[in-house]
Specification:
The chain is built from 4 helices and 5 strands, in the order αβββαβαβα. With 155 residues, the chain is an alpha/beta fold. It has a 5-stranded mixed beta sheet, with helices on both faces.
């Protein structure tokens, strides 16, 4: 027989968990560095939960949404839903594929999460791209709002 009882529970302290940065393909980055050049563009990027769940077979889940936006124009450069399995490596790969597809390196990449910063840092360092952690990403926030509206209208 279970009984409910009121009371205050002490929650365990929250500590940020460290995570392992997936290895990057050094040869691929060297090849990119030789093939492409810098342009004075600023990209804003993020990795967040998608606003709607995916129902694939069993239990529904919220995938990650990786989004890349041009800072000045607000143009969405790339967006992709990522499954939870190996999402960090997939996010890194998506960034590299974006560079390969546009065939240039942005002058700067701006992000607003420490995890995203840490995932991109080994890549941006090798490619000599300025990486900035900031609290304001206006173009990205506008794109996320539009993406959320799009997904929610389709439900």
């Amino acid at each position: 027989n279970a009984k409910w009882r009121d009371g205050w529970l002490k929650l365990p302290s929250f500590e940020k968990q460290e995570f392992e940065i997936p290895p990057i393909d050094e040869i691929r980055l060297q090849r990119i560095k030789k093939m492409v050049f810098h342009k004075p563009f600023i990209w804003e990027g993020d990795l967040a939960y998608a606003p709607v769940p995916i129902h694939e077979g069993g239990r529904p889940y919220f995938p990650f949404l990786s989004l890349w936006v041009d800072h000045h124009s607000g143009y969405i450069l790339k967006g992709e839903l990522l499954e939870h399995l190996e999402y960090r490596a997939k996010f890194q790969d998506q960034f590299i594929r974006l560079i390969e597809s546009v065939r240039f390196l942005p002058q700067e990449v701006r992000v607003n999460k420490e995890e995203v910063f840490k995932l991109l840092e080994p890549i941006t360092t090798k490619l000599e791209i300025k990486l900035t952690l900031t609290s304001k990403l206006p173009a990205l926030e506008e794109a996320q709002k539009g993406t959320e509206d799009f997904f929610l209208r389709r439900m």
